[in-house]
Design brief:
Elements: H1 2-5, H2 12-24, H3 27-43, E1 45-46, E2 53-54, E3 68-75, H4 78-87, E4 92-96, H5 114-122, E5 128-131, H6 137-150, E6 156-159, H7 175-183
Parallel strand pairs: 3-4, 3-5, 5-6
Antiparallel strand pairs: 1-2
Length: about 190
């Protein structure tokens, strides 16, 4: 059970539920899950260009000639990249930082792939960097640092808009989200 608790997002109660499930599950299912975990670890690599998790490097996005290589979206984690891809609204390429600045957790710029991003931009061919870090204090600080470091390149820097989720109710939203929604409002066309 201690091993299950080390998984992200799994606390003691969830680990206990998972342990009891595995103990009562058919042995074939348990072996199937164990094999899947081992296969993922063996078969998935980091893309050498964008640092996404993929079966091969370069990944399918970086090697796709239909993607706009001059449009670069910076995200914290591979899951963030997947969320943007599900939107089907972005046709550029990505750069996965591997986290966000968090001095309390000992994560500074050197623990992130910011230097690799700077090198990528310095190689040329990038006309816009979209900062799509999470709208948290850490994500905002990370976006600010990257913007400062890339400012001298003269490329266009944009930040994803923040605001109300589709189907959300104003009365249940926190004041920061409502404020950002007002700040990021746009003209109706």
């Amino acid at each position: 059970m201690a091993g299950l608790r080390r998984l992200p997002g799994i606390g003691e109660k969830s680990a206990t539920r998972l342990a009891f499930f595995l103990l009562s599950a058919p042995e074939a299912l348990v072996h199937e899950l164990a094999d899947a975990i081992v296969r993922v670890k063996k078969e998935i690599v980091l893309c050498e260009e964008c640092f996404d998790l993929a079966p091969a490097s370069p990944c399918s996005i970086c090697s796709d000639p239909a993607r706009d290589a001059a449009l670069l979206c910076v995200v914290e984690e591979p899951a963030d990249l997947e969320a943007i891809e599900r939107s089907r609204r972005f046709a550029g390429r990505y750069h996965v930082l591997g986290g966000a600045l968090s001095p309390i957790d000992g994560i500074g710029p050197q623990e992130l792939r910011i230097a690799a991003l700077e090198a990528r931009v310095q190689r040329g061919g990038v006309r816009e960097v979209v900062l799509a870090t999470n709208p948290t204090a850490e994500g905002d600080a990370t976006a600010h640092l990257i913007a400062e470091r890339l400012r001298q390149t003269g490329i266009r820097m944009t930040r994803i808009a923040c605001g109300m989720p589709l189907g959300g109710d104003l009365e249940y939203a926190d004041h920061v989200t409502v404020g950002r929604s007002l700040d990021n409002r746009r003209v109706l066309e």
